[in-house]
Design brief:
By secondary structure, the protein is mainly β. The protein contains no helices and 11 strands. Strands 2, 4, 5, 6, 9, 10 and 11 form a 7-stranded mixed beta sheet that branches. A 4-stranded antiparallel beta sheet has the order 1-3-8-7, with no helix packed on it. A hairpin with a 2-residue loop joins β9 and β10.
């Protein structure tokens, strides 16, 4: 299993970013995918998840209405569209999949929201 995140950057408050996660090594379309984030000095927390078919999503309250998770099963990719970014969104963002009780993570991509 391999997960590779990309798209992180430094943006101003109110800006937007789109994160991508390229997945390989498993049957992508049948697994729920998630995004988590970890701010400096804090634990990793849930951001959003999407079912294998893409027809069901769930968000943390802190990002609801601002972030959108999506996936392209033909490309084995999951995305996180982030809008109205706030300084408190600053974190390393990780892609996640759980397979047979094993949690897999990518290397993370840094998002910094600062003026």
């Amino acid at each position: 299993v391999q997960l590779v995140e990309s798209g992180g950057d430094m943006v101003q408050p109110g800006g937007s970013l789109r994160l991508s996660c390229a997945a390989s090594g498993f049957t992508f379309s049948i697994f729920r995918m998630g995004w988590f984030r970890q701010a400096p000095g804090k634990e990793r927390v849930f951001v959003a998840r999407i079912q294998g078919s893409g027809d069901s999503t769930y968000y943390a309250d802190s990002v609801k209405g601002r972030f959108t998770i999506s996936r392209d099963n033909a490309k084995n990719a999951v995305y996180l569209q982030m809008t109205s970014l706030k300084p408190e969104d600053t974190a390393v963002y990780y892609c996640n999949v759980n397979i047979t009780d094993i949690r897999y993570w990518g290397q993370g991509t840094q998002v910094t929201v600062s003026s």
